[in-house]
Amino acid sequence: MALPSAEELRWARQRRAHLREAGSDLDIVLTLRKGTGPPLFCAPPLVGLSWCYLALSQHLRSGNPVVGLQSRGLRRPEPLPADMAELTRDLADHLRNVQPDGPYHLFGWSLGGNMAHAIAERLEHDGHEVALLVMGDATPALPYSFGRAADSAWRVCNFVLREVGYQPAIPPDEPEPEARMLALVRERPGLSFDAWPDERVLALPRVVQNNLAISQAHRPGRVSAPMLFLSATRGGPPTEKKVASWQPHTGGPVDVVDVDCRHEHLLLPQPVARIGAAISARLL
Question: I need a surface site. Which of 40, 84, 113, 133 has the fewest CB within 10 A?
Fold first, then answer.
């Protein structure tokens, strides 16, 4: 197994720190920063948790509040959304409880960008103005290597481990990947999940699987909101191709900011400082 890069080690440390700071709050609405003016609502990435956006909240020059939206089913067992329409209707309702009227400002990194686009579509359909839609290196084609959601338990468990600062070490032939994930967590006391009961740890792969299945089945519509596209330029498709993939799904102006990092490192300190400045300049 290859040794993790310096960026991967920094990412793992940042993930663990954010989980210690905000990971015990698993409500659907998570206030990341208080302030004045319209909030910046952050849609959950694939893992369902929005604590990763704490990094962004520290780099916004504006005084706007930052509010994370999180997936259902993290705090307690409950039915998960059946499709993107149900998921975005739920998140849009919670968003409007915080801010009853527009204009709204939305941000999403990775799969969170796809969810932010779908929330914007829902809000516009219901007659609300979306003043800004920030896409954090998201594409409609979902550039993930999970395969079909139903056949990817070991990949999902490795993804969860990595997302919360553990070394992903579950092989493809592992017959019980969730049990192995729990064992790996319990072998490293003092890290992110140390105080989490087993059922809460196991809720994460369940939420990830559901978010993955919903997203793979979703076909985005079209929104008219202005879009700010943040493109990670190390690896992956070129910026022009990623931006063009959203052309059928947006009718508003599109601004592009290139960020010198990999997709998975977009919220590390140096990239997120550039992101924060770009978003701050566009918030009302």
Answer: 84
Report the C-alpha dihedral over residues 252, 254, 255, 256, rounded to 10 degrees: 160
Q: Which amino acid is at 42?
A: C
Residue 63's CB: how many other CB atoms inside 10 A? 12
Cis, bond preceding 103 (omega within 30 deg of 0): yes
Question: Tell me: the pLDDT tens digits for 199-249?
Answer: 989 999 999 999 988 998 999 999 999 999 999 999 889 999 999 999 999
- CATH of 6-233+245-280, picked from 3.30.930.10, 3.40.50.620, 3.40.50.880, 3.40.50.1820, is 3.40.50.1820
What residues are paired with 69 via a beta bridge?
Answer: 29
Question: Mind listing the pLDDT tens digit for each residue in 250-280?
Answer: 999 999 999 999 998 999 888 999 999 999 9
How many alpha carbons lie under 13 Å from residue 128 in its C-beta half-sphere? 20
> In this predicted model, what pLDDT tens digit does every residue of 82-107 receive, in sequence order?
999 999 999 999 999 999 999 999 99
Going through the chain in order, the beta strands assigned E by DSSP cover: 29-33, 40-43, 66-69, 104-109, 130-136, 227-232, 254-259
Q: How far apart are CA 192 and CA 267, in angstroms?
A: 18
